[in-house]
Amino acid sequence: MNEFKKEVQSPTNDVVDSAKGFAFSFIFFFVIFAIGVGIRLIGN
Fold first, then answer.
1. Which residues have CB under 8 Å from 10's CB, separation 6+?
2. Are the beta carbons of 5 and 12 closer than 8 angstroms?
3. How far apart are CA 23 and CA 26, in angstroms?
4. How far apart are CA 44 and CA 42, in angstroms?
5. What is the pTM (predicted TM-score) of this model?
6. Which of 3, 4, 37, 43 has its CA 20 to 30 A from that of 27?
7. Residue by residue, what is the 3-state secondary structure of the chain?
8. How far apart, in whole angstroms, are the C-alpha atoms of residue 32 and residue 27?
């Protein structure tokens, strides 16, 4: 058996971790976009 399979760092599923990463990055960039749109609307 592969020695790396014996001692895994994180036993959780990789799909869940990648979905969390995608969601957090999407929310972050959406907040940046919303702030920019808000500033533009206030400026006009």
1. 17
2. no
3. 5
4. 6
5. 0.64
6. 43
7. CCHHHHCCCCCCCHHHHHHHHHHHHHHHHHHHHHHHHHHHHHHC
8. 9
